[in-house]
Design goal:
Elements lengths: L1 H12 L1 H9 L12 H10 L33 E7 L7 E5 L6 E4 H6 L27 E9 L5 E11 L6 E3 L1 H6 L2 E4 L6 E5 L4 E7 H13 L7 E4 L3 E3 L3 E10 L6 E3 L2 E4 L5 E4 L2 E3 L4 E2 L9 E10 L5 E3 L4 E6 L1 H4 L10
Parallel strand pairs: 2-6, 3-5
Antiparallel strand pairs: 1-2, 1-4, 1-9, 3-6, 4-5, 7-8, 8-9, 10-12, 10-20, 11-19, 12-18, 13-16, 13-20, 14-15, 17-18
Length: 339
C-alpha cells in the first residue's frame, strides 16, 4: 500500500496532478496539510452515487369553454377592434387582428375612399389568393398609423405597414408582423372578454370576435315583429349533408292554438334548396323576448332538411315559411265519406 501511496503522492506533484487539483478548486499547497494515504484510501473506497431521477410535473388543463363534440370552432372567429386608419378623421372601421397572416393587408377600395390616402411604395412580391375572388396583383405597400382607443380612454397611435390588395373582401387585416412589431399579447377571458396588451406601455385595448358582431345583428333580426305570419330561424344552425334537423324558429304565434306551416323551399347561394315539410306546430311555445309594443312573437320548432352533399348553415333571421291557421287553410271533410 505504501508503494501506491508514494505513487499517488508523486502523481499529485506532477503537472497533471496539479492541474487536477486546480480543476476541483484546490491549491497545490493542499498536499502539505493532508495525509496522502487517507486521500487515496477514500478515493478507492468511494461509492458511485447514481443521479436522482427527475420526475416531470404534469398539470391537466381543463378547458374553460366546452362546446359540443365536433363543434369547437363554431362561434369562434378573428378578433376585431374598432379604430381608424391614417387619421382619426377617417371613418371608423373594424380592424381585424389576424395573427395567422404573416403580413398586414389593406383593400385598395378603402384607400380610394380615404380623405388623405397615403402613397403606395414598391414592396415584396406576394400572392394572397384566398382573400380575393380571383388571383390578386399586390400593388405595393403603404405606411399608416392605426388609431385604437385604449381600455381606459387614451387614444393609442400604432404604426402599420400594409400591402395593398385589389378586390379584397375585408377592408384591413392586421397580421402577425404588426403584432410582433408592437409586442402585442392577447389576454382571453370568457367572463371578462378579450383584451390586447400593448408591450410594456401599460395600455390595453378591447377586442371581440367578429362572431359576436354577427350575434348582435342576429339578435336585432330576431326581435322584429312577424306580423305577416312569417317564421324565421331563431339562431345560426348547421344542417349536416343529406340530413334533417329540428331548429328553433320565431314568429307571431299566439299561445294555446295550432299553427300550420306549409311546405317551403329555402334557397341557397349555389342554386340548391333546403326544404321545410308541411308541419303542425306544437301548442307549446316560448316567449321570444321581443320588447316592441303589441308583439306576440313566440318561439317554436320546425324540421328542415338538407338534401345536398355538403353541410349548410341556416342563419338567424332566415325566412323559413309562413304560419297559417289550419282551421281556415286546410281542407276539412264535409261528409263522412270524405274522411
Amino acid at each position: 500500500m505504501d508503494e501506491w501511496t508514494d505513487g499517488f503522492t508523486k502523481w499529485l506533484s506532477t503537472p497533471e496532478g496539479v492541474k487536477a487539483l486546480t480543476a476541483v478548486g484546490l491549491e497545490p499547497t493542499f498536499l502539505e496539510h493532508i495525509d496522502a494515504a487517507e486521500v487515496l484510501a477514500a478515493a478507492l473506497n468511494a461509492q458511485t452515487i447514481e443521479p436522482t431521477a427527475t420526475v416531470d410535473r404534469v398539470f391537466n388543463v381543463i378547458p374553460k369553454r366546452q362546446p359540443p363534440a365536433g363543434r369547437s370552432s363554431v362561434g369562434v372567429s378573428v378578433l376585431t377592434a374598432g379604430g381608424h386608419l391614417g387619421s382619426r378623421e377617417e371613418k371608423p372601421l373594424p380592424l381585424r387582428l389576424d395573427s395567422g397572416a404573416n403580413i398586414s393587408l389593406v383593400a385598395r377600395s378603402f384607400l380610394e375612399s380615404m380623405k388623405n390616402p397615403p402613397k403606395i411604395h414598391t414592396g415584396l412580391k406576394v400572392a394572397i389568393a384566398q382573400l380575393t375572388n380571383k388571383n390578386p396583383r399586390i400593388e405595393g405597400y403603404v405606411n399608416m398609423p392605426v388609431w385604437i382607443r385604449s381600455t381606459e380612454g387614451t387614444w393609442l397611435r400604432l404604426h402599420a405597414e400594409l400591402y395593398v390588395v385589389p378586390e379584397m373582401t375585408v377592408e384591413v387585416l392586421l397580421g402577425e408582423d404588426w403584432h410582433v412589431n408592437n409586442e402585442l399579447s392577447v389576454l382571453r377571458s370568457l367572463e371578462k372578454g378579450t383584451r390586447v396588451v400593448v408591450g410594456n406601455t401599460g395600455f390595453t385595448f378591447d377586442a371581440i370576435s367578429t362572431q359576436h358582431r354577427r350575434d348582435k345583428a342576429n339578435r336585432h333580426r330576431r326581435k322584429r315583429v312577424y306580423a305577416n305570419g312569417a317564421i324565421r330561424a331563431w339562431e345560426d344552425v348547421i344542417i349536416p349533408a343529406e340530413s334533417s334537423r329540428t331548429i328553433p324558429i320565431a314568429g307571431d304565434l299566439q299561445q294555446n292554438r295550432e299553427w300550420y306551416v306549409e311546405r317551403a323551399l329555402v334557397p341557397q347561394h349555389d342554386g340548391t334548396f333546403l326544404t321545410v315539410p308541411n308541419t303542425l306546430l306544437s301548442l307549446r311555445t316560448e316567449d321570444a323576448g321581443c320588447a316592441e309594443p303589441g308583439s306576440i312573437a313566440r318561439r317554436s320548432q320546425v324540421s328542415i332538411s338538407n338534401p345536398t352533399k355538403v353541410p349548410r348553415v341556416v342563419r338567424a333571421g332566415t325566412l323559413l315559411g309562413y304560419a297559417k291557421d289550419p282551421a281556415t287553410f286546410l281542407d276539412k271533410p264535409r261528409t263522412q265519406e270524405e274522411l
